[in-house]
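Data availability (excerpt). The following record was deposited with the supplementary files.
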Amino acid sequence: YDYVRCGIQCRIALAMEEPLNRHTQTRAAFTNEISKLNRQVRSHFEGVSKDLLQALGTHNISEFEQLLFRHYKLVKHLRVPYPGLLNNLTSMHEQIANYTEDRVKEVQAAAKSFTLAKVKQCIDSMRKFGQVLSGVYALYAEMIRDRPDAAIDRLNRLCSEHFGGKELVHLGRFYAVLEIPPNANQEDIDRAFRNRSRECHPDKCRSADDAAATEEQKQLNEAKSQLSDARIREAYQRSLRDPFANLLREIPVQMRSTVVDCLKNSDYQTARDVMVSARDLGLISQLVDPNLNAEECKERVRQTIKEHFDELSNKVSTFWLNQKLKELNLVLERMEKVDLSFSAHTDVYSSEWNKRLRTDVARSIKTKADKLWQTMDRMARGGQEVSQMLQMADGLLALGRLMDEIPLFKADASTNIEHILDHCQEELGPNFIFKLGMLLEQGKVGKKDSDGNITADDKRVARVILNTFRQFRDILTVIWNQQTSITQKDLPSTLREIKSMKVSASGQQSPMGVNTQRLQQGVDKYDELYKNFMQEWKAGMKNCQDLVTDVKATARKAVPCRVHFWGPHVKELLPELLAGIAAYFTISKSGDSFRRLTKAGTGGQHVAVTSARGAPNEAINADTILQKPHTIQVLTLLRLFGYDSDGQSLIRQLMQIRTGEGKSMILGMSSLLFALLGFPVRCICYSEYLSQRDFKLFEEMFEDFGVKSLVTYSKITTFSEDKVATQGDIRQLTVDMLKGTLKPTVSVGVTSPVSGSPASSFPAISGGSNPGSESRSIASPATTSMPTSTSTTTTTTVTVPSACMGASGTVTMSAPTTSTLRTVGQLQHGAASLGASNQPEEILLLDEVDMFFGADFYGRTHDQVAVLESSEVSDILKMIWKNRSLARSQLLQQVKASPQYQGLLRALRGFDFVVDREVTQMCDDVREFQTPPYHCDSGNNRIGYKELDGVCYDIVYGYRTAFAYLHEADNKNFQNSQKALTTGLRMRVSCGQFCYNKINPACILGVSGTLDALGGEEWKIMGKYQIDCYSTMPSVYGKSNFKWWNQEGVDPVTVVETRAEHFAAITEIVKRMLEDKRAAIVLFETAELLKEFEKSEYFQKVSQKNVLSESKSHEDKDYVIKKAATAGQATFTTAVFGRGTDFMCNDQRLLDAGGVHIIQAFFSADKSEEVQIQGRTARQGKKGTYCMILCEPDLHKLFGSKRRIAGQMAPKDLYNNYLEIERAKLQHQKHQTIEKSLAGAEERDGMTRQYFQALLAGSLVMSQQYFKDLYNKIWAAVRQGRSGGGGGPLHVVFCLDGSGSMGGSPWRDLMQAFTTFLNTRRGNPDKVSVVIFDDFSQVAMSMVELNSALSSWLSMPGGGTRFLPALRDAQQLLSLGSQEKLAPVLIFMSDGANGDGDCLSEMQHLHQQHPDLQCHTIFFGRGGSERLRLMAEAVPDGQYHHSVDGIALQETFKSIAVGAEYTK
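Predicted structure:
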């Protein structure tokens, strides 16, 4: 490394070249030697550069410093003879600048998050690097300062900002010149000066260039002179100790500032985290001079938080004392959050305020309740005076205010009200309750305002009481009957409004005729019979049991009947059956109230009470208290059953009725009628909560008519599971197969067994369906009709490690809770139906059919997962969790070397492939255990996930859920950790996929509020189920009063540019609604966005508000829903509550003000969802308005476009000419994706059925072979799904090694493999980008289609090998693909070692920018590449491949193209 002499000799040689070339005898030989010298110099230069960058990439700063100094000397002494060397420096400078920038960002990120241990670690490691920057690098940068270089400028700026600035650089150069360390003393300086002078002094180094030697000696003299001053040396050493000094000094200031902001916005969790982080200030206090006063800083943060809590506690006392309940509730909402975050930090927070308040409120509730009890006792003894009734109403309002305005004490207040009303009913009679309710409904009692009117708040509280308590149910019935009687049209007019449509196979609609005369006859007959039934009951001639007997006798007249034997013998009896069912419904739901009311009214049909609308003591017809179907609901039922058709079959068809107008009644009566005729009935709803709500409405009737066993209300996943369960438990049978204990279940014809090794005993493993504790997975794509089961099932959840639709899906499973399952018929071999011809025909009733035929069900599969429980599995999961910080390859290697792993292999002998893949999936999932977010139910020791409108505890996401259990157990968040871990730590093996689209019962009927919103694609799907007609029924309440909100200065559709503007616009409209005495309901797209809004300052600006979230209990949800449609109330919720949630409005004051206003805070990709959300207002003929407030970035994400929208179009044009058009495109793409995925899903469905039959037949060897094929197929589908195969279009970015070693046949092999990939993917709407790299990189293709890529020619540059330039180009290309919503795939191929580090930070950055990135790294040649392996492991969905030759390379590229794993 004697570059001084080397430079001199090179200059001499090059100077001799021209003179010697004149002598022909020596010209050729000398030219050859000069070329050889040039190559050697260039090769040495590249080698030093590569070594330097490699040292930097491995964070070996000492080696980097030595190599940088060597590089400095090399450039210094050889740049004159070889000026071209400087042209290759830019890339190296960029990589050093990028490294420095990344390290600085790492420090800044740690400081921003107040991760102070990380800050200390980073700064300690950066001190040495700062010394290099201020020393050798500064010397080097000064030498080449005349060359423009952006990277050098960046480095200089970073040095100036974070590493002591110009002064430090100035002094550091002197140390570099003398080649001494920063801690050198005077003796070291003198010695270094003498040694360096011998090398550089012109008198001592005669062979050197005099001018250069003189200049270098001058630098040495200056360095010795400066550093001989001890004060200068001390200043330099002090500055070296203080990198990032300004940043460190700002941390305590930022901590307190962040805490103040968090306290202001009620973000107490973050405030707590900052306070905890402040305890670590001592770690960094010594890193800056003068040292930080850590204790003082901690105390400031702590005191700021404590003062805030003390202030809130004082407000609680003050507001309660002054009975400012609204203000009190706002503070209590904040204190509830405080308690969740700070209950363990008693030095800043005390819960004494809670105890005091609870005592005070309990005393107040008791006092108010005692007054009511006393009033009741007086009334019971001395009659019911008007003044006493007013006292009762006032007392109820007093308790109601506490219940309504302080949800924290709702349970106590409502319990007292419930007991009081029960006592009223018993002691004072139902007529008194009725009168009391009418008084509350009219808003005649309560506090009065300055004008002498009852306050708006008390009117609202009165409505809440009426809506909440069952004792006032009769009042609501009277109101409903009065309202519908006003809008009731004559029957002929109603019949003319029925519209019926026929839908062709292409989705085109055409009108169908409606036999109105026949329908009128049916309604007339129904009315006559219904009145007869009711008159006989009123007269005491018949009781409910007599009515049941009569209806069942009528039903027997229609037997036998089947779907295709549905002629006049059935249809003529429909009005009579419906009349009997309706009469029984009326009597069972409101007969007792009618009897009590008429008895109190001395037996007459009219009762003197305070009416809902009239004057006091106006007579009300007692019939208005009876709950009964509306005429239009009867018409819908007759039309649904084909009463007006001439055919002999029950036609598959759908009915559209407006939301909120009686779907539950129609579905319940339909279920009961079909069951009476002997049909098993399954009523399907998308929501378990809504399904059970509707079932409870008719449950007693199903029992009384003896048909409860024939009627099941459930979700589609439970329906599918029940179908499978009729034949047997595929999960338990799979466990038996794995154990080797499989036995025949039914007689099945099977083919000859295939060869395979028998499974050995399975002593250590137990498992199976385990009813009540197992879980369920969300499905993947699409299957065959299966027999019906009427047995009760328990929905459970299991996860396919990766064998569901996503990386780690979830599978819905229901395991039978009874020991007897009906086995019907024989199973047919192959992929045939698991059905039987003698099975009763099942009727499927659909609630909201668009959900059933949407992508969530039609295009997915119901996945089956067997659960294996053993100590080995539990120990392996714990081992992975404990060592999760290891690199994936190290972690996997450690697990496979463990005795637990070997024990599991022995227990599952013959199934090594299962163990290997499941354990590999465990190692992948441990990094993602918090995705998706989960909910920990500490009291019940379980983990749950959001599902539609609730939290489901029967869902498992691969092994992520197991690690979530371990995380919560570590934090001691379970009451019984051992019980929780027993549930959570299991192996989950995929054992089948049943397609939802194969569910095809005897007949499908359905009701929906959104049929008009369905497009041609949805109708094409329905055509596959032979559903090709529907009817639109008129409204029970007449013409809709729904309106898009369009007032002066406010648009019905608003688009804003930022999230802050989004929240501000929503808040402004909500506040305006409340000021106008209206109610507002805001629907956000996700729970996460709702939480973000709750944490914002805008949420605090709304006074009377409630949040309706999935995590609330059913009781709390019901309360918020009932309260939402009352004047002055704001409710914030999510999109899932936009379907089926009945925000019923009985508040006349609200209706007079304009009704409920709905704000949809996102744009629906499905039109039907938008229609459903609109249906949350203007329900049941009432007034209501609706608007959209949208955020532009959300639209960009939805549509995959960066088009500027905000303020660019009028609202009408915005909606019709942009939003609707883009939505149509999305729907078309969605259905294309669904149809494309069905073929593979149906193949897996057929394999599942074949495997299931082998299990049922008890064929162990055959089951094992079928299982292996099925298991591998599911895993291949999962891999394909993760790489985009079968899903949306991909953007595949290739980074291909074009270095010199790839020349000749390797390059030809690579091009052949590349072509194979493109041909395999041909026909997909993918985009391809290609980066070719050697020392540098070039983008050869950018976002081209497959056909264009196939016709393109790629050339090989043939230089060295550096990965970083290629990865940076790949990052830019992947970002382009993200704008078009393309699934990102990176394929990085090389045949050799690179010279620019491990590239791990770059790979991690790629993953951060593209979380769904699938990465494949490929080493081509012998030996393998640990670096490429680590690069793949830096990405959660990364895979390393080793292809030894051209054939293997083609196979690798092809397997990646189809989504299969190929590692050789």
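Summary of structural features: The first helix runs from residue 3 to 21.
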